[in-house]
Design goal:
The chain has nine helices and ten strands. By secondary structure, it is of the alpha/beta class. It has a single domain, classed as Rossmann fold. Strands 2-8-1-9-10 form a five-stranded parallel beta sheet, with helices on both faces. Strand 5 and strand 6 form a beta hairpin. Helix 2 packs across helix 4 and helix 2 packs across helix 5. The protein is globular and about 55 Å long. The two termini are about 10 Å apart. Bound molecules: 2'-deoxycytidine-5'-monophosphate. 2'-deoxycytidine-5'-monophosphate binds next to helix 2, helix 4 and helix 8.
Length: about 230
């Protein structure tokens, strides 16, 4: 009987973490959790309730409201992954918009927000058999994860991929705005005082600037199979 493991996939924004994590979870029959979607859901709530805008952020009210924010994942068989719900409403599409991307790093820098979401993430991971992607999964959420991957790529390559993705979804954005957002998010995510994005010493770094999705998938799947084997023999 093969034992289940935890696979933590961290890294810079728009490095294809979620695409990879979904593929790996599907192949191994594991649960996939997109923790970025949870931070985006809180951001969506803050925007909807006028708690954040370009020139104001009512952090205290957001912290007071945290008990009112219920985030769930429900598996959508048509899409083949779990979509995110905020207080019972499917917000999977809304949270991918640029307006949410523009404010999510500020929301994710609030320690009380992180505390709430990390607790929920740990609870989901208790049963193992989970692929979780984010920024602090290997460093904070599951420091003992059996497999840790750290993904990166050049900012220009990431912005180009993100731009194409947004265009395909019919969103009207400029390449420069997307690149600026990628650079800004890297900076806030890496420099914030609570749980900054770091590569832990036991994480395997993958720079996918010049790797195809298939090559990357094969590489990580083999690593995962090896870790499952090692863990099962323990
Ligand atoms: O993975 P993403 O781009 O959808 O994540 C959105 C933002 O949420 C990202 O800019 C940083 C933040 N985030 C975080 O701080 N910690 C996580 N575990 C996941 C995301």
């Amino acid at each position: 009987m093969k034992k289940k493991i935890i696979i933590a996939i961290d890294g810079h924004s728009s490095t294809g973490k979620s695409t990879l994590a979904k593929q790996i979870a599907k192949t191994l029959n594991y649960i996939y959790i997109d923790t970025g979607a949870m931070y985006r859901a809180v951001t969506y709530y803050a925007l909807k309730n006028n708690l954040i805008s370009a020139n104001h952020f009512d952090k205290d009210k957001l912290i007071k409201d945290l008990d009112k924010i219920k985030i769930d994942f429900k598996f959508n068989p048509d899409k083949g992954f779990a979509e995110v719900y905020l207080n019972g409403k499917n917000i999977e599409t809304d949270i991918r918009k640029m307006i949410v991307s523009n404010f999510v790093s500020d929301i994710a820098a609030v320690p009380e927000v992180r505390e709430k979401l990390v607790a929920q993430q740990r609870e989901i991971g208790q049963q193992k058999g989970v692929v979780m992607d984010g920024r602090d999964i290997g460093s904070v959420v599951f420091p003992d994860a059996e497999l840790k991957i750290f993904m990166t790529a050049k900012p220009e390559v990431r912005a180009e991929r993100r731009y194409k993705e947004l265009k395909e979804k019919g969103q009207n954005v400029s390449k420069q705005d997307v690149l600026n957002n990628v650079i800004k998010r890297d900076k806030i995510d890496s420099e914030r005082s609570t749980s900054p994005l770091i590569q832990t010493t036991d994480a395997i770094r993958i720079d996918n600037s010049h790797l195809s999705r298939e090559e990357q998938f094969e590489m990580v799947l083999n690593l995962a199979k090896q870790k499952i084997q090692d863990h099962s023999e323990k």
